[in-house]
Amino acid sequence: MLAWFESPAQSQTPQGGNSLPPVTVDAPTQQSARRAPTKRNAARVRSTSRRTTAPGAPQTETVAVQSQPSKSGVVPAFAGGQVAQGGRLGLLGNTDTMKSPFNVTSYTDKFIRDQQAATAADALILDPSVRSSHPTGGVVDSFNIRGFPVNEGNNGEFVFEGLYGIAPNYRIFTDYVERIEVLKGPSAALSGIAPNGGVGGVINVVPKRAGEDLTRFTAGYGSAARFGGHWDIARRYGDSKEWGVRTSGSLRGGDTPIERQSETTGVGSLALDYQGERFRSWLYLIAQTDRFNAPSRPFLMAPGLQVPKAPDGRLNVTQPWEWSRINDQSALWRTEYDVSDQVTLFADVGGSRTNVERFFGLPTIINTSGDTTSTPQFFGLSVDRYTYDGGVRARFDTGFVHHAVAFQASVYHDALYRRLTNGSLVGSNIYNPTVAPAQFANEISGRPRLSDSELTGLSIADTLCVLDERVLLTLGVRRQGVEANNYLSNVGTLTTSYDKSATTPVVGLVVRPLDNVSLYANYIEGLSRGDVAPQGTSNEGEVLPPYIAKQYEAGIKVDFGRVATTFSAFEISKASGERSAGRFAATAETQVRGLEFNVYGELMPDVRVLGGVSLLDGTLTKTAVAANIGNTPIGVPNVQANIGAEWDLPWMSGLTLNGAVIYTGRQFVDTANRQPIPDWTRLDLGARYTTAINGRKTIFRANIQNVTGESYWSSVASFGTFFLGAPRTYLLSMTVDM
Q: Global pTM?
């Protein structure tokens, strides 16, 4: 450690701003220049996972049409440093944005740090296709993507290095994150079936790994009295720098801006890698704990009542004696071996374990005056998950057609164990929360099995390129098996079993009439396990076949050199189960049509922009309740718009101002569309100052979220719970590169 502290500061190349020696702004100079197009001859060299920009630097596995990884093992950033030039497309690996038949956005570590984003939900605040569907100060990061829920449930749906079952189950802390990538739309053929059946998109976490040597420390403060520190250290060893070590983590704790609420988090991660001539291996280890007193909870609304006006976001109806404790441990081992310059074998194995103990209720608003009732419940839950896969990537030519083929076999398994006990009813009010006499959890020993499932898959995809990658056609298919067992709650006896399978295709086309213009289209399907007919139906216990979601999408991407834009139109339809005439059947269907516009990059060398707009037309196209046909689905707004900008002040070197405006249209809490929550707008402002102190690069950051202190209901989950928006929050930090 002393040797690290005494080493000279690493040279930094400015990103997206003026070159200010010795004061620097934090992004590479390449971002200010137009990207050179990738030529076919670069794509046809041996496996790009062996293309090295520095000896021994770790690389990300890729196929022929993919972007060159940078020294940190990820696709380089675009101009401005906030968004990468490409992202992972599941089985297809890292693919250049302009050669991808999908809408995918990859947010960089620089953007995450500058936003002072602690979790994935914070980091995705400027994506117009994504909305967090859980409250600030809550215990889960869940989302609506393109109008469909993702990560709702007890089986986490975050993807880690392309694999389900590895990432922490409920929340992703950004300490160990190099990129957060959002692939918009269903992805069964590319990523497999999501554990909870999410079809709106895939959120992939790209972990940090060792690139250039780094020693970075951050001290931070968040209102009302939450303090913390973060470390990030990377080293490479060996004659050719073939061995890499990176460790990062944090400890934070204290009172949040929400009344009577405190949170303590601890995160630690370790990434080890070996980069040989033909063999490469990575090992990732993550441990995190998240402890809340009085965690924020979503609300239910009594039927037939209008949703009352939102209270001040600082108010909290959760009792001070209610709490949550969640611990996660994750591990992933990845390997690659180049059989030849054209053929690469790969295999991955990993898993995670989550332990949950919590004691809180779900408040129901029972009248328009804001009175609530809630029954605290002790919830002891264990979630064990593991996954393994293997396959081959190959490149070859048939005449003038170049092929990049990937084949993968995969297995995912999860098992949930749960014990529930109930407390006593508590009353409160959203405008004037009251403190009730303390109750205590009455845990019963043992956690009976609640459910288990195994998802197996065989998939193959081929990307065909012609005319120097002017035309790219992707064809793929996955055969997915789903086995699941459900057990009686608190007892553990088997109630229902499930063994179904389905085949899902993908077709994607990219036509590039110019180097900087891409026309794209795709057809892809999503897959969700079918429901089990509930108790009280005439077919109780019957398992429905898997639900298939279908997406049609077309769009255009234009790279102006320093600014890039994407415009897309899509339609997603998904079936679901419902009760009708005493029987449970897959007779319901939701359809969401949308237009998306994204923009990012540098308007000029000292001005950066990131944002866009998403117009959604959600419709209940089929349902047993005839009066609801044509209504808007729960939680789908008609408009989501975001715009964020940064400006490097020309008269004060190193000072950058930033701001963002976030808008979400009206949403409904019920399928009858009688309980709306109004649209809302939020303003965030911030600044950062980059300088050198004793030769060490130092960055001071200050951000204010919800500057105007708006009170608003922020979002609605698919099952009709809705959430209070974040109060005004202050964030301060100082980062030093040793």
A: 0.89
2 φψ region: left (φ > 0), alpha (ψ -120 to 50), beta (else): alpha
User: DSSP assignment of 312-337, as one string?
Assistant: -TT---S-TT-EEEEEEEEEEEEEEE
* Beta carbons within 8 Å of 409's beta carbon, 6+ residues apart: 389, 390, 391, 457, 458, 459
Q: What is the pLDDT of residues 292-340, one digit of tens each?
A: 999 999 999 999 999 999 999 999 999 999 999 999 999 999 999 999 9
Using DSSP bridges, classify how beta strands 143-145 and 130-132 pair: parallel, antiparallel or unpaired: antiparallel
3-state DSSP call for residue 99?
helix
AA identity, residue 79: A
- Residue 633: its H or E element: none
Cα(118)–Cα(144) distance, integer angstroms: 19
DSSP string, 204-265: EEEE----S-EEEEEEEEETTEEEEEEEEEEEEESTTS-EEEEEEEEEEEEE-SSTT-EEEE
On the CB side of 434, how many CA atoms lie within 13 Å of its CA?
A: 11
In one-letter notation, the amino acid at residue 538 is S
In contact, 504 and 550? CB cutoff 8 Å: no
Helix (H, G, I), strand (E, B) or coil at 109: helix
* 30 or 224, greater pLDDT: 224
Question: Residue 609: which of 585, 645, 642 has the closest Cα?
Answer: 645
Closest CA relative to residue 428, chosen from 379, 377, 366, 378: 366
Looking at residues 192-201, what average pLDDT do you find? 92
Task: Report cis status (omega within 30 of 0) of the bond before 626.
Answer: no
What b-and-e string marks burial along 706-728, b requiring 16 or more CB atoms within 10 Å of the CB? beeebbbbbbbbbebbbbbbbbb
Report the alpha-carbon distance of residue 570 to residue 185 in Å, rounded.
9
In DSSP terms, 596 is beta-bridged to: 568, 614
Give burial (CB, 10 Å; 0-12/13-18/19+) of 52. Answer: middle
CA distance 394 to 549: 30
Query: Which DSSP state fits 37?
Result: P
Q: How far is CA 248 from CA 124, 161, 575, in A?
A: 21, 17, 42
E strand or H helix at 85: none
Q: What is the rounded (10 degree) CA torsion for 120, 126, 130, 133?
A: 60
Distance, in Å, from the CA atom of 247 to the CA atom of 270, rounded to the nearest integer, reads 4
Instruction: Provide φ and ψ at 147, rounded to 5°.
Output: 85, 5
Sheet bearing 426-429, strands edge to edge: 300-301, 364-365, 371-374, 426-429
From 127, 72, 529, 427, select the one nearest 275 (Cα to Cα): 72
> How many angstroms separate the CA atoms of 552 and 185, rounded?
9
Beta bridge partners of 691: 698
- Beta carbons of 77 and 31 less than 8 angstroms apart: yes
How far is residue 466's CA from residue 486's CA, in Å, rounded to a whole number? 49
Segment 660-686 mean pLDDT:
96
CA distance readout (Å), 575 to 157, 528, 625: 20, 9, 15
CA nearest to 150, candidates 132, 138, 165:
132
Q: How far apart are CA 148 and CA 140, in angstroms?
A: 17
Q: What CA–CA distance (Å, rounded) separates 212 from 411?
A: 35
> From edge to edge, which strands make up the β-sheet containing 143-145?
130-132, 143-145, 148-150
**CA nearest to 285, candidates 231, 249, 345, 329:** 329
Residues 6+ apart with CB under 8 A from 394: 342, 343, 344, 403, 404, 405, 406
- Write out the two tokens for 492: 């553990």
**pLDDT(86) > 50:** yes
Contact between residue 206 and residue 174 where contact means Cβ atoms under 8 Å apart? no
Residue 241 scores a pLDDT above 60: yes
Q: Which of 240, 226, 230, 191 is closest to 208 using CA atoms?
A: 230
